[in-house]
Structure formats: structure tokens, C-alpha cells
Amino acid sequence: MIIKQVSVFLENKSGRLSEVTRILGDAGINISAFTIADTSDFGILRLVVSDPDEACKVLRDSDFSVQTTEVLLANSPNKPGGLAQLLEFLNAKGAFIEYMYAFSMNDDQATIVIRPTNMQRCLAILEEYAG
To answer: Hey, what's the signal peptide range on this chain (predicted)?
Structure first.
């Protein structure tokens, strides 16, 4: 499934992450998953949220630099080797992944957030894997 991910540019200063989460919480926007990639000066906060368009609006209104990006969601068994099996299938079919992160809402399934270089090709591969 293709969804919108929210990416927020953050300066590496104390309190910036809590400010983002408070703004989203006050707007009634739930955060389902997130990851942070950082350097010494700044970071990119990537979020899967309940309302990405509203999240962008409220964060921009608070002077954050924000954008949305399409990503794919894939499910994998939440057991040893489950992710390896999915990644081996993607690799064998020629999918290239720019980045990914994962979360688990229960003991049986993990949800993988994938940003591939070719969205439609990777989606077709994932549909083949699931089918």
C-alpha cells in the first residue's frame, strides 16, 4: 500500500522533537511510526501519521520545514528471519531501497515502511510476494 509520509527538517537543538510531537498531539494527529536520521547540525524526522496533510499544515504554521513523500507499507511475519525473507525477495526481483524502518503493533506482524527508488515496481514486487 502506498501512503504519505511526513518529513520534518529539525535543527539539532534541545526540545525540537518534543515541540513537533506536542504540535501534532494538540492537533489530534496520531503518530504511528517514526525514525530520525541526523547529522551533527540537523536531522530529518520521518513520520507515519493519521492525517499527513493536516500534520504538514500545523507544522508549517509553526515554522517547521515539512514535506510529504510517498512510501510503501509492507507486512512481514514478526519472527526471526521474517524481514530477511522479504528483503531477499525484493533483492532477487531487483528492487532498490533508499531507506526503510519498521514497527510492530502486535506479536504476529511487523509493518515495514519502505522508500524505494521505483515506487510502482516495488509495489508490484510486494504484491507478488503477498500473493
So the answer is: none
